[in-house]
Amino acid sequence: MAANWKMYKTPDETREYLREFLPLVAGHDRDEIVVCPPYTDVATAIEAARGSNVAVGVQNVHWKADGAYTGEISAPMLLCLGVTHVIIGHSERRQYFGETDDTVNLRLKTALESGLTPICCVGEVLQEREAGLTDDVLRRQCVRAFHAVSAKKAAKLIVAYEPVWAIGTGKTATPELAAEAHAVIRREAVEIFGDEFAAKLRILYGGSVKPDNAKALMSQEEIDGALVGGASLDPKSFAAIVKY
Ligand code: 13P
Known about the structure:
Distance between the termini: 11 Å
Number of strands: 8
Shape: globular
Bound molecules: 1,3-dihydroxyacetonephosphate
Largest sheet: 8 strands, parallel, barrel
Order of helices and strands: EHEHEHEHHEHHEHHEHEH
CATH topology: TIM Barrel
Strand content: 5-15%
Structural class: alpha/beta
Number of domains: 1
């Protein structure tokens, strides 16, 4: 169960959030729980969450270890802070910051090689869904993201299906529709990585997940967890989703 805070919260707000959130999920061991704040909150979050069942992730990573890349953050920099997870290829990065299937692949390979757990996002935009292209888009995004990644290397991989039309819009995919898309992704994972890997692959759903729809979504066999934006910003609301 992953929280994507996007560009919200200061370090003080992060400390306050975790002070409230950690007791609410203490002892919850059904799911892995991860909070992905902005980079500027990472050190505070790690300090506040130390010794708890909540891991700290980030929302992007560069593919090089270091170099003249103004404004970028590398995997070694994150690992030395204690970051364990990284969201890769979020649709907002694809839409606003020039992220492509190829840069998703570079980031993903780096994350896996460095020992970070990548949460690799795929999902169609509304026009693609309306044109009946959803399955093609998901297959293409998976093929390109996982290019030259072996099943052995990909062991930690998590995929998030986030239909772009459902992000921040209050329009959730129905559980059935989300499950269908997850099945397409899993079938593609069979092609790329084999049956055994695909059966174990965790696929999260993201897009307007709220406390009142989490149970219906999570009760789908194909849906292994959630990547939550807006509703993860409030500790009570994210805890309610985690414990649906
Ligand atoms: P919302 O939950 O705000 O729709 O955002 C989903 C998302 O983009 C998570 O990465």
